[in-house]
Specification:
Elements (H helix, E strand, L loop, with lengths): L5 E5 L5 E3 L2 H7 L3 E5 L6 E5 H12 L3 H13 L2 E3 L6 E3 L2 H7 L4 E6 L4 E5 H9 L3 H10 L3
Antiparallel strand pairs: 1-7, 2-6, 3-4, 3-5, 4-8, 7-8
């Protein structure tokens, strides 16, 4: 499954966000939303991807992954879009991603990310094209 594209949507008064139909189609009727570990955004994952991540984590020694498990799974949202394609985001996830009103939903290959509009703009502006070109060259592109 390949998630692509960039979409802007506004949180409504009940902190619900619309997940675009194309992304919902690929995510399925049931998916997961959690805090990204390395960025101030949210990760949206299919059940298969969460199962794969969970399996990788379970192979690590318990003494090394306790904090990782707590961070990744404790505030994970078991998401089922309503009939209008919306998901209610809990305050902890909104706070983690610094979402004020408008969010940017982006496909990033094997998952989807939800960013605050402001942080997405900063992320996009800080792209280092030389670094990206170098990484592409390492995989023959």
């Amino acid at each position: 499954m390949l998630f692509v594209g960039e979409y802007r949507h506004t949180l409504d008064a009940k902190n619900r966000i619309f997940i675009p139909a194309k992304l919902r189609e690929d995510l399925g009727e049931h998916f997961y939303i959690t805090r990204q570990m390395n960025e101030a955004c949210l990760g949206v994952y299919t059940r298969d991807e969460i199962d794969s991540i969970s399996e990788k984590i379970s192979k690590l020694p318990d003494s090394k992954v306790s904090k990782l498990r707590k961070f990744f799974f404790s505030q994970m949202l078991d998401a089922y879009p309503d009939s209008n394609g919306r998901i209610g985001l809990p305050p902890a996830l909104i706070e983690h991603a610094h979402i004020d009103k408008t969010a940017v939903i982006v496909g990033v290959g094997n998952h989807v990310e939800i960013w605050s509009e402001e942080l997405w703009a900063k992320e996009s502006e800080s792209e280092d094209m030389e670094e990206i070109r170098g990484l592409l060259a390492t995989i023959g592109l």
